[in-house]
Write a structure and sequence with these properties.
PH-domain like; globular; 34% strand; single chain; alpha+beta
Length: 128
């Protein structure tokens, strides 16, 4: 079962599980060739990263042995940005950066179709 599903609160639904782009594996694979242990670690982090949008929050879980979770409640979101490099524009992936009140930030990395993810978050915060 998904980490996000396991941690839903009462009356909270999953709106979208944010898919990671396979192009996010380019850097870990390069590290695999250059320095094997770093490449293995980065591939494991990529494989264990879970990102999602629920009716109450945006959540990201990363980690292999130690786990880090970041979340921002939808009512606290102030802005949503997209960052894409050249490859991101060509292959339609990027980073969605969510800024919350108090200077908090959450980055959803290697997101497939970041414009759609931004639109989903914008629609949710418009309805709050």
């Amino acid at each position: 079962m998904s980490y996000i599903k396991e941690n839903l609160s009462k009356n909270e639904n999953i709106v979208s599980l944010v898919a990671l782009s396979k192009y996010g594996l380019i850097t870990p694979c390069l590290w695999l060739v250059i320095f094997f242990p770093v490449g293995i670690y980065q591939i494991l982090v990529f494989a264990t990263t879970k990102q999602g949008i629920t009716s109450k929050k945006v959540i990201k879980k990363t980690g292999v042995i130690g786990v880090t979770t970041d979340e921002i409640r939808n009512v606290k979101i102030e802005s949503v940005e997209i960052k894409q490099g050249i490859l991101g524009r060509i292959f339609n992936y990027g980073t969605v950066i969510i800024s919350g009140t108090g200077g908090s930030k959450l980055s959803l990395n290697f997101v497939n179709n970041p414009k759609k993810v931004k639109q989903t978050i914008d629609n949710l915060i418009d309805n709050v």
